[in-house]
Amino acid sequence: xxxxxxxxxxxxxCLLMLCIKLIPRKKTRSKxxxxxxxxxxxxxMKMLKREKHRTYSKLKxxxxxxxxxxxxxxxxxxxxxxxxxxxxxxxxxxxxxxxVLFDYINKQKDRDTKIGPFKIQNEYIYDQKEICKLxxxxxx
Length: 140
Hints:
elongated; 140 residues; mainly alpha; 5 helices; two-stranded antiparallel ribbon
């Protein structure tokens, strides 16, 4: 005894309630694949380099240089730890699922093979041209 429009509205509201109750929500994935801890360290490095560039006093510049060096070592340590945990997971799951091992090996093949950074007298060198010049002088 109701018109078509009201029947459709009732049907849609019932469907909406059923969907909300029974269908799980889609999980949102984070956009970046960089771990949170490493991202914080990289941001800290940016901040320290910016601050070092702005300073006028040599004492503060040396102090900031020391902090930059500490964060670089923390970054290197974090990357090593992450690599170790991935290798442990691969070893643990290797017997149950051999594809995990082959996936890990294929990812290792595809990685970027840049040289560096170089550490000379507690200072890291990232510039590829400088690294090339240092290698040429070393091998000559």
